[in-house]
Amino acid sequence: MSDMSDSQFDIVSQKCYNCYINKKERGDTMSANVYSVQSLLVGKEYRSDTLTGEIISAELHPKAVWYQGAEAYLVEVKSYDMGVSKYSYRTIAVALP
What we know:
This protein is α+β, with helices and mostly antiparallel strands. The chain contains 2 helices and 4 strands, in the order ααββββ.
């Protein structure tokens, strides 16, 4: 629940709207965060029938691996086996937009 009254909310809303209009008139463009596929893969969980772990690195696959409508990435997976870290590589396909 907000601590602002309706009139305070209206004032804040109007200030935000005015700020938006002023930026638009100056020609400021809105910005967006830009992410790479690699950065979105790192930190995600990898699971298959033979391996479960965390993706710690990703790169476009260095060898010609082709999947229809997708790009191939080589990912390094860190897994734990009885408390010991193990590192493995796997190929994954990422669908193209």
